[in-house]
Amino acid sequence: MLDYLDLEADLDEKERLIRETAREFVDDRVRPEIGERFEDGSFPTDLIGEMGELGFYAPNLEGYDSPNVSETAYGLLMQELEAGDSGIRSMASVQGALVMYPIHAYGSDEQRENWLPKLGEGEAVGCFGLTEPEHGSNPSAMETSADREGERYVLNGTKTWITNAPIADVAVVWARDRSEGGDVRGFLVETDREGVSTPKIEDKLSMRASSTGSLELRDVEIPAENRLPDVSGMKGPLSCLTQARYGIAWGAVGAARDCFEVAREYASDREQFGGPIARFQLQQRKIAEMATQISLGQLLAYRLADLKERGDLRPEQVSMAKRNNVRMARETARTAREMLGGNGITTDYSPMRHMANMETVYTYEGTHDIHTLIVGEELTGIAAFE
Ligand code: TGC
Ligand code: FAD
Question: Where, if anywhere, are coiled coils annotated (predicted)?
Answer without folding.
Answer: none
